[in-house]
Specification:
With 197 residues, the protein is mainly beta. 7% of the residues lie in helices and 43% in strands. It has 2 domains: 15-84, Roll (SH3 type barrels); 110-185, SH3 type barrels (Roll). Strands 4-3-2-1-5-9-8-7-6-10 form a 10-stranded antiparallel sheet.
Length: 197
């Protein structure tokens, strides 16, 4: 899927408000889920450009600019992460951003683990659901899903570490992830704990 949003001949589906952040772009807008019930499913099933309606470009600090556009196409390769501060509840029958484990307990059960991930312009810390025996090397070497769901996320702009944002949910682009660490229970990294990069 490249430009069409629905795979289903134009059926629009539910709209989701999002914030898109990349090294050279920051904006808010609305995307249609089309036939999908979750933002993560729609994003990971698509490629190329993402159609964003009611786009408003933001300053790097997150303040709205006066540039608003009815529709904008954004290259997914340039997106570091897609975030939602207060995502809508998923439709009935859809999970809340992650597949519910189909196994009982043990190594096959997904667990929320705290990670810090670096993109070219930001740090992202938050919880990622991984299988119990997944180590850090396996996490970073995986290519699927391309956009990794993160909950209870905190982002910091590396050029000005005072610019901090918190999101209930975000999708970080693996192709923009240049480093990652397992926090091992530490829930957040304070700006003073990060070296100047």
């Amino acid at each position: 899927m490249t430009w069409g949003e629905g795979f289903d001949g134009g059926q629009e589906g539910r709209d989701e408000p999002i914030e898109i952040v990349g090294t050279n772009i920051r904006m808010t807008g609305v995307v249609s889920l089309g036939r999908f019930k979750r933002l993560s499913d729609m994003i990971n099933a698509s490629s190329g450009y993402l159609r964003v309606r009611d786009a408003c470009l933001l300053h790097r600090t997150g303040q709205p600019s006066d540039l608003e556009l009815p529709e904008m196409m954004v290259d997914q390769d340039e997106i570091s992460f897609i975030a939602q501060t207060h995502p809508d509840a998923p439709e009935e029958g859809a999970a809340g951003g992650f597949d519910t484990p189909t196994f009982d307990t043990g190594i096959d059960e997904r667990q929320a683990r705290e990670y810090v991930m670096f993109t070219p312009a930001h740090t992202v810390s938050g919880k990622v659901y991984v299988f119990g025996q997944t180590d850090l090397a396996a996490f970073v070497d995986s290519t699927s899903p391309r956009f990794v769901p993160v909950i209870d996320a905190t982002t910091r702009w590396l050029a000005d570490r005072k610019v901090v944002n918190r999101y209930d949910f975000l999708l970080i682009n693996r192709t923009q992830m240049i480093a990652a660490a397992d926090l091992g229970g530490k829930t957040d990294i304070a700006p003073e704990d990060l070296p100047s990069l």
